[in-house]
Amino acid sequence: ISHPTNLYTSLPQTCLPIVYHPDYNITFMGLEKLHPFDAGKWGKVIHFLKEECFLTDADIVEAREATEEDLLVVHTKHYLKRLKWSVVVATITEIPPLLFLPNFLVQRKVLRPLRTQTGGTIMAGKLAVDRGWAINVGGGFHHCSSNKGGGFCAYADITLAIKVILTTSVVCGSAGFQGNGHERDFLEDRRVYIMDVYNSHIYPGDGHAKRAIRRKVELDWGTEDSEYLQKVELHCEGALNELRPDIIVYNAGTDILDGDPLGGLSISPQGIVKRDEIVFRAAKQRGIPILMVTSGGYQKRTARIIADSILNLRQQGLIRGGAGQSEGLPLRATHMESSSGSAGSTSTRE
Fold this sequence. Notes:
Elements: E1 18-20, H1 41-51, E2 61-62, H2 68-71, H3 77-82, H4 86-93, H5 103-131, E3 133-136, H6 157-165, E4 169-175, H7 180-185, E5 192-199, H8 207-210, E6 213-219, H9 225-242, E7 248-252, H10 269-286, E8 290-293, H11 302-315, E9 336-339
Parallel strand pairs: 1-2, 1-3, 3-8, 4-5, 4-7, 4-9, 5-6, 7-8, 7-9
Helix pairs in contact: 1-11, 5-6, 9-10, 10-11
């Protein structure tokens, strides 16, 4: 671990490397409904996995809130101070009425859940190294960089996970939106290899950040399963043949889903499940630890799809479910990102 943190505690081997906390879910007088993002999707994913007897509460690693000391590993003090202004948080989250609320409420009801998800990503990164794979049921705030938030992303959890734990990583993004946040953070860091698969016509269109992408896969409006999955597999294999990273950070957004109001792509639920299988299979075949975060997705059915994908990963033998069933892999890694757009998309995207 490169930086000291209290987020890591010794965990029983009976826990699965799946990180979650009920505090992930944002509910605040219905204001969360003013944003197209389903601010309760994380709890729904866990509910579906419990229904399918994949896990119980005892199997889950409980996320802990990232502290200011943790956040300062990446974020500037100036940026964190700006989050104490409700108008700034309203702009980042794209929920305008927040600017009228006292900041202590905004901190408690909006930013604390996002800090807890950020802590979950950092914890899942360590778990991935220890166990070979890990999933943070939240996180994936790929539009946030060290000094700027946007697109519902207030904290740079992907950058933090990489900087806290690792030295060499690959970030692979297969998402609707460009992951411009971590791209800006790693512009000058050749230890981090970024692959980004995204809709080139939507937010954020960050040309400066694109300079950090080592393998850029830009998609057109309405791209469907066949072309999409072919490109994901081709470029995932290509990236992992170019280098041997310490970890894969996989930003597995569901905003690529057909009908998503923001992503602009036409991928089926089965296509999303297959995409995740392709990425996990590539990691397992090479013995590279993989950390998955769930990122954006703006339809109510995305929680069911995420749960179905995790169940498929177990069925394919790429992860193991049930107490004491997790498996370890040697320390090697990469980072992948997947959502319906680019690695750094427009304002209302996570």
